Amino acid sequence: MKVLKFGAVWCPGCLIMKPRWAEIESELPWLNTIYFDYDKDKEAVEKWEVKDVLPVFIFVDSNNKEITRLIGEFPKKKLLQLIEKYKDK
Amino acid sequence: MHKFSYKTIIFFFIIFLFFPSLTNAEEPLYDVDIHFFWGNGCPHCAKAEKVLEKIEKKYNNITIYDYQVYSNATNQKIFEEMTEAIGENIEYIPCIIIGTRAIVGFHPTLTKTKVIDAIEYYSYNENDGPILEDEKEVDVPIFGKIDPTNFSLPLITIVLGTLDGFNPCAMWVLLFLISVLIGLKDRKKMWVLGFTFLFTSALIYFLFMAAWLEFMLILEMLVWLRLLIGLVALIGGGINLKSYFNSNESGCKVVDEEKRTKIFNKINKLTKENKMHLAIIGIITLAISVNMIELICSAGLPVIYTKILAMNELNKIVYYGYLLLYVLFFLLDDLIIFSIAMLTLKLTGISTKYSRYSSLIGGILMIIIGILLIIKPEWLMFG
């Protein structure tokens, strides 16, 4: 499983989520996360159908298929719960 | 021992009896309260006011309380209560009440004579007329007696200003600008351009608020305008509450790509400008264009606030002081984010989850103000 993170430098919610993900990533070094900039990575934005609300976090399985997505701000606890739930997918 | 003659005693008796002012040439015994009821645009009231201003300079034991009654329900009530208390049914202004004496209308010489006569009388005789009870003062431990009305208008200014400005999602232009400025690693340029952007934004909003205030002051007497703004407050409050209850989502809606790209290109171009004055001009133009667009969508709270401000009779300097206070708190979140970024060189965001609470508090407050504007406007007159 990997997590695709979509955000932008001008998006306050993305700035709030950035340190939360940084903490998780340092606690779980095996976790694969990829960041996409909403303005620069247009191809990924289109491919994963990221609409008009940011930030977006897409949990993807080993076959590159979407398991679930979160839109907006979420507490670290909620992110850890989802990672735990889908880590073997 | 000298003995007074019969004639001398009679002479002094007459002097004391008919010329009390001679006997009172000493310090007055009492302070005299003068209650002056007037109306905006009433020419006789303006003349009476000038007479009172002249008299005020001559006596140091008088206090003039003035009440504008045309558009002030509280003052109208005081007028009714005072005239009733002295047993008169007065419906005209100007009206000057001193003790139990009411001087109604204006006469070039008589008004002045009557006022002076009443002041002279009540300087040496206890007030037998109505006394305004100062119910406003509240005994607060440590601080002693305070008048809560003195704090109400600043408080409502701070609360409404903060609520009006609090929108993390609307900070996208500032956040992008800061992100580019941090990348420049030129501290002076960062401070100058960032501050110029914020200052221009504040100035635009201040001018916008000032225009609304002047509009409200000109049309102060229109009852239907007050009712209309009350209705606007109720509708605005309803929309805010609806957005609180309907939206569980956080995050920000992205501004359309064309507009976003245009603004970002402009910021990139002007921050790379080597000539500082050209960069400043560019930032000013950007702040004006960005804020002008925002103004169209954000008239609700400014309209309500300037109406409340206009209902409180203040002088121009105080009015504009309040507008400055409002704008300062309107920009508070921007100022915090900008200062943190400039000091730490890190971009911080304000959680969009707070927007929901801002909608809830704003909604409740707007509904309360709306109801008061319609049925109890005097409760919003704090002075």
Which features does this protein show?
heterodimer, A: 89 residues, alpha+beta, 4-stranded mixed β-sheet, 3 helices, 28% strand, B: two-stranded antiparallel ribbon, 64% helix
Describe, in plain words, how this protein is organized in 3D.
The complex is a heterodimer of chains A (89) and B (383). Chain A is an alpha+beta fold. Chain A is built from three helices and five strands. In chain A, strands 2-1-4-5 form a four-stranded mixed beta sheet. Chain A starts with a strand and ends with a helix. The mean pLDDT of chain A is 91. Chain B is of the alpha+beta class. Chain B is 64% helix and 8% strand. The longest helix of chain B is centred in the middle third of the chain and has 32 residues, at 187-218. Chain B starts with 5 loop residues before the first helix and ends in an 8-residue tail after the last helix. Classes of the chains: A alpha+beta (89), B alpha+beta (383). Chains A and B meet through helix 1 and strand 3 of A and helix 7 and strand 7 of B.
Task: Please specify the SSE layout and strand pairing.
The complex is a heterodimer of chains A (89) and B (383).
Chain A: E1 2-7, H1 12-27, E2 32-37, H2 42-47, E3 53-54, E4 56-60, E5 66-71, H3 76-86
Parallel strand pairs in A: 1-2
Antiparallel strand pairs in A: 1-4, 4-5
Chain B: H1 6-18, H2 20-23, E1 32-38, H3 43-58, E2 62-68, H4 73-85, E3 95-98, E4 101-104, H5 110-124, E5 138-140, E6 144-146, H6 149-165, H7 172-184, H8 187-218, H9 223-246, E7 252-253, H10 257-271, H11 276-297, H12 300-311, H13 316-330, H14 332-344, H15 353-375
Parallel strand pairs in B: 1-2
Antiparallel strand pairs in B: 1-3, 3-4, 5-6
Helix pairs in contact in B: 3-5, 6-12, 6-13, 7-8, 7-10, 7-14, 8-11, 8-12, 8-13, 8-14, 9-12, 9-15, 10-11
What gross morphology of chain A would you assign?
globular
Estimated structural class of chain B: alpha+beta
Helix and strand composition category of chain A:
alpha+beta
The low-pLDDT segments of chain A are: none
Mean pLDDT of chain A: 91
**Mean of residue pLDDT values of chain B:** 82
